[in-house]
Amino acid sequence: MVKRAHDVPDDYDPSRFPRFAVTVDIVILTMREQSLHVLLVQRGVEPFAGFWALPGGFKRPDETLDEAARRELREETGVTAPGHLAQFRAYGDPGRDERTNVVTVAYLAVMPRLDKLQSGTDAAAAQLWPVDDARRLKLAFDHNDILSDALSRAANELEQTDLATKFVGDTFTLTDLQKVYEGLWHVKIDPANFRRSLTTSPATATSESYVESTGRRGTAAGDRGGRPPELFRVGSAWRIQPPLRRRPKERPGGN
Fold first, then answer.
1. Which CATH class is domain 159-250?
2. What region holds the Nudix hydrolase domain (predicted)?
């Protein structure tokens, strides 16, 4: 019999290699009342029963990592994952899970809104937490580190991609978008400067725009009263370059 190159060798013994489990953990970020929030679940089982944690769990042998992430998110929170879940890091410190040697693959996703949360499986509750409050909690396992890394990744992606637009719906106010940058960068942005940045085309494409007016206004008055704010939709300039970059001193470790 001719042995193909990808056949398992006859003398292969999987017991010679260490065994470990694989889990997925999902960081879901959203804006609520113009404040950055993260989705957490309260663990209903040991270890860390009663602690808040990122949604996630063990990968099954017959599913991919992406499938496991979508299933765990749905089972623990009732949330259907957005179309794009981005892996951003793996964590494999030997003591991170006292049950066994566990490697987890962390995902980051952004959603413009989260409604009708419903806990299930081993989650006793599912809740949106303001990010600043969530970071002060003692989360289960190494989830404080995972959350911190996810927020750093999201902050960096604001300078490189159209991630900011994923936080807002089909129509939004400029304040809605501004609060995304302020929440992830921990800065205060002058509204007039922000509006100028969003309504100015990139130098390489004078006909492109970051936002387009819908000709309509919201239903609530603005922050300072008066007329409801103007509503916008996402323009095409984001595919060329994002409109804002942090000053070096605003970046972690910047001078």
1. mainly alpha
2. 18-151
